[in-house]
Amino acid sequence: MLEKRTDGRKFEELRKIEAKVGIIKRANGSAMFKIGDTIAIAAVYGPRELHPRFLQNPEKGVLRCIYDMTTFSVSERKKPGPNRRSTEISLVTEKALLPVLDLSMYPTSVIDVFIEIIQANSGTRCAGITAASMALAHAGIPMKDLVSAVSVGKVGGRIMVDLNKDEEDFKEFGGATDIPIAYIPRNGEFTLLQLDGEIHKEELIKALEIGREACKIIHKEQQKALKEIYKEIE
Amino acid sequence: MDHEYVISLIENNTRIDGRNFNDYRDIKIETGISKNADGSARCIIGDTEVIVGIKMDIGQPYPDSADEGSIVVGAELLPLSNPEFEPGPPGTQAIELARIIDRGIRESKAVSFKKLCIKKGEKCWMVFIDVYTINDDGNLIDAGALATLAALNGARFHKLEDDKINYNEYSNDKIKLEVVPITCTFGKINGKIILDPNSKEEKVLDARLSIATSNGKIYALQKGGDKGFTMEEINHMIDTAIHKEKELKRLIKVI
Amino acid sequence: METQNENILVKPREIVVPGQVLANGIDYLPNDGTYRDKNDIVSSKLGLVNIDGRVLKVVSLTGSYQPKENDVVIGRIADMGFSGWYVDIGSAHQANLSIRDVVDFIDRGADLARYYDFDDLLVAKIVKITRFKNVDITMKAQGLRKLKGGKIIEITPTKVPRVIGKQGSMISMIKDHSKCNIIVGQNGRVWIQGDNVADEILATKAIMKIEEASHVDGLTNKIKELLEEGRKNA
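Predict the joint structure of the above. Result:
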């Protein structure tokens, strides 16, 4: 079993967090979320006209999420543009954010969410969802609550929260099982749940429990960042 | 919607943000903004923000320059930076931006291609320069060009082991800028020339000219827009660019 | 003794975020920007809390224009159909202006461009928003007209009430000092027409200052100072 974490953290401890709202002036809403060495920025445009027309839904608005990584965000240069991984992440991001939105207010319109990963050290999709949540609120889109996301996992037999890259790549003592989650504190629901590895049910439940507590901490940081934009102007 | 307002201000020799015709907005440069990049920088001009990251890779030299490496410049106009940018592969505007930045670096020999040679005729360093727009409030060209210089300045090379890159270690080699070419972009509105157009001014430009200079030498020119420039106007813009270059050059502290 | 105040968890004009609980119990009623979740009244927006007796509202400080019936807006003719025009009012969709809402009598086959042509600017009023969020506007009411000359600037729609002020006090002050004609559309578009550019710039500066600092107290005095300084230098 793994004795200590590579960066000395406790198993339930998050890396250092930095959250900032309103970083992209042209967007209707925008935010940056940094956790450890992972940096995600998100911008929201909308509700706005959706083209082409055949994509429009007459009953409710459409949420369109696009996740992208810069070529230099990772160790080995990533070819620019979307790939299968970023397409899948764009989809699960959309599914993670939809539950807090009431799109029936915006029939035939689209709310565009663009996420860019500037620096990657694991947990990028979670950082993206966390940033996107703040950006949606900043854009004035009504939401039931903010969505908070973090990765949990089992590394070398230990259940832990907020895996860094070394932990994600860990090969000994059974390797690493990566479980990205997103959580809505208001109603206690998980809106992102993926798993990659091997784990028993009891361990998974324990992981979700510490993940939930970690999300609550992230939630507080998101709220703080949203309120802070008005303090600066004063 | 405020096109007429912008034009009427220019006709009265003022600009919408109160600048003089030959003034840049406030410029800020930050380096080391992305840890996994071999070199990186952010350039902010007014509210325009562009980030650039450098990644080195091993490639084969071109047959006609067997003892040289090269740069590869790509640019993406991210949809998050401007409501009018759509997701998708780089379009003409992005490609033009990349090629203008490439030209300034390449023609001025700001980076020594010979120093990028690993083994003549067989292996060389390819310096991948990727430009991303974060907030477009006009003049992505100058912001992109400055961020590129700042990112290249002191960019590091990974250690080579058996001709393969060891991503865990850097050698002591760094890119040293031999020349610092500064790009100045001008716009023409109703016959008046302005430097560093912001996004509202860009919408009503008749023509645009980007000039890359260093120490009185001109390394690159690119005219954009639907209309033309007169000889006098070109003369004036080049003089201004050469003059401004001294000021802006100071923003890049060559290692 | 139990007082009503025990159940309210926020102060008037406090900045709140989506998911934040504003009040407990049944003493308060949820209105715009809030919703009831069992025993709680929760904010669905990032904005300022408004407590009006027992009614709780959250007023957005950010976001794109959401059309409302009876709003007076500044629109631009974007397209023409057989029996009317499509007008860009800065929201997710173009508004419909039927010929019936412009003149009482019209010849069959009349050229619509005789009335309003492409890119003409109008001050119009929203008469109806259908179930599918189609917006119908009219030119048939007092004060509505095609705009000639002048300039348009755009501000965030949520800041419009501040620019107008209590009973129009703020906009009157700006009009008096700048000596300009000013029409403020609820959609954030402001039309300014002065005798000279310097006057128009003064009005613009004042309005943009309000947009920046709309939630700050003592704003009226700051704007008054700005206008008086500007008048001196003119």
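The interface with chain B takes residues 76, 151-154, 189, 197, 200-201, 204 of chain C (CB under 8 Å).
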